[in-house]
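Here we describe the complex-level prediction in full. Unlike the single-chain runs in Section 2.1, the two entities below were treated as one system.
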Amino acid sequence: MTDITCTYPDREAVLAGYLYDDLETAERVAFDTHVMTCLPCRSEIAELRQVRTTLGRWAPPEPARVLAFEPRTPNPEPRTWWHHVPVWAQVAAAILVLGVSASIANLDIRYDSRGLNVTTGWSKPAPVTPAAMSATVAPAAVAETVSSDSVSREEFNQLRAQLQSELRARASMVRAASAVVPAGATMTDGEFERRVRALLDESEKNQKKELAVRLVQMQRDFSALLQNERGQTNQLFRDVTNTYGPQLQNQQKQINYLLPAGR
Amino acid sequence: MTWSDEELVTRSIGGDAESFNQLVLRWERPIYALAYRTLGREEDARDVCQETFLRAFRAIGGFRGQAKFSSWLYRIALNLCRDWVRRQRRTPIVQLPEDVDVMELAAERGPTESIEDVVARNDLTRVVERAMAKLPEEQRTAIILKEYHGLTFQEIADLAGCPLSTVKTRLYQGLAVLRRELAKSEK
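The structure predicted for the assembly as a whole is:
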């Protein structure tokens, strides 16, 4: 141990400041100069630095938890903005999109004594004729198709393939009809009108079939969307329960702790 | 985004419990360490730590930011430690509990720490705690706040309510006592 014989002014305070590097610059320079020529100060500084080194290795025990109550931890990751939109609003938005789409497509769905009648496009509907009436989709058939949730994509594809083959057949018929009539041959107005009407009727019939299929598809998509929303709602509810349940418990613990009667 | 202590305090005063939780999470370890080094007992340190945050929670509405939040918290904790020692009439600081088993400590050691290291660390802890127990309260507090919490001399002076030079002197004298006590234990 060092025997102190140094008489540096206010030595103890300056030495403490020197050890912790907490001296004004001028004070430090002056003491540095002094230390170079003062053996007791040099020795003591070395010994006290050794004490500091030893103190630095003294660590308190690390308990798993310091406090009896557990403060809430922040949410691990921020949720994307659309997670904050209520599910009912998301469903409403989906319905709105469907409505607007139907409006743009000028979709007209009628259900009357003639059954379900679906039309689209901006062209005026053809006058109702017996042929057109026969093309109207039978209510039972549509009800069966629309209400059936089991219409698979495979069936849809089959239907589409069937429609395409019918259209191809129709096109070949037209080509054949054109071939039968020799070039330059004249057709009576009645004959021409009958053929055109038949073609139009056939075309309208196919269009209505296709629309019915699309309506079914739309209904299926909408059902899937609702199902998905229901799943998300359930998930959201589970998330809320998992996230805030323990926190509420902890808050309750804190409240109990804070209340004088709780101690 | 990380809020500063002052921002969290402002939000806590405004009723945001989450902000106070953030302050607790940020300061529970330092306050616990301060209490442990002052009192020397894990259970007591935990109680003091809990009481510190409880008092801070109750009084935060009156905190006007004259000092740093951490200094305010340290003041509460140190007052509690002082009261604790007086009320319990215990000698502050010292030894690990009798039932602490070195082999158990060794079992909990880190992957790179040998049993010899654990034993050495345990011995060192005993030696330092015994030496610290020899210090008068003011010297011990000054050393703890400076050595382990990095407070400036001025902050310690403000906490202790004494002149700056007094803090430096207390610190020097405390270190001198520790040097002597540690030298004894080496013999």
